[in-house]
Write a structure and sequence with these properties.
With 353 residues, this protein is α/β, with parallel strands linked by helices. It has 7 helices and 17 strands. β1, α1 and β2 form a beta-alpha-beta unit. The relative contact order is 0.13. InterPro entries: MnmA-like (IPR004506), MnmA-like_C (IPR046885), MnmA-like_central (IPR046884), MnmA-like_central_sf (IPR023382), Rossmann-like_a/b/a_fold (IPR014729). Catalyzes the 2-thiolation of uridine at the wobble position (U34) of tRNA, leading to the formation of s(2)U34. GO terms for molecular function: ATP binding; tRNA binding; tRNA-uridine 2-sulfurtransferase activity.
Amino acid sequence: MQKNKKVILGMSGGVDSSVSAILLKEAGYDVTAVFMRNWAEDDGMCTAREDYIDVVSVCSQLDIKYFTVNFEKEYRDRVFSYFLSEYKKGRTPNPDVMCNTEIKFKAFLDYAMDFDADYIAMGHYARTKNIHGKTYLLRGADPNKDQSYFLSRVRSDALAKTLFPVGELKKDEVRSIAKKYNLSTASKKDSTGICFIGERDFNEFLDQFLFTKPGKIVDERGNVIGEHSGLMHYTIGQRRGIGIGGVGSGEPFFVADKDLKNNLLIVAQGINNPALYKDEFEVEDVFWITEIPSLPIDLSVKIRYRASDEDAMLENNNGKYIVKLKKSLKGVTPGQVCVFYQGDVCLGSGIIK
């Protein structure tokens, strides 16, 4: 029992954080829920209003105190500005990783500690383990919902102060608990995509904030085969929405590269085209969660959240961190987060350069 331990739970209005509240109460913690307001909700892009209503409903039912904290300025300064600057560079960032790093496990953690909390808690599908006084990040027990990818740039000392109540559970177990308690969030659909964009067209959203310049689409030999609407509208490996077809063999085209200097979108035809695959790539801003390993090191990597694990070696080549893959890989995208694992342990990550 943890009757004297105070926990500040980040509640999103979803089923995972709702069940986290139940599990923490059952374990005897003194639980206070906090709803984070990270984006202005009067622009029609975010579901914050509906989510807050669900937080109030669940907390009232479970007899848990709840508050709202406004991190809109921190989110714009630390996450949204990063998101826009990366797209200006022609890269494809992951704002959810940055949100965890800068908001949930930094700004929110600082806020909670000001209330003399012993821990914060989140509804992420992830686990932590303490070994000889060091805190390690582990994958969640449900391989289909594991969210360690998004936590791969969170400091070990922040994880040491964090509880992940649903980390040992499968998603269907979480929903069963919510239904048992007849929570309003029991059947609520999981949120997808980026909060501040919501259901809006992604390219239209970018065009509100960044200048887009149309240009030429070329194949690997430099032949002009179409026009693009602006390089920021495309990502490496993309197939749909390029706007070209019926050329050559008739096979689909994929985005292979971007030439920012000449404003060219470079495409390759056919899913097996060698131009789409890489045997190695460089990562920058490498971050280690708990300890810095000796390099070179054998590990597995994920180049995006839903990607499969790929066997690789990470080495330091004259100050450059190079990921060498055991088999060539399609869709290696600059700006995306490459996460490093050894078994269930998440070691850290780097940004694909």
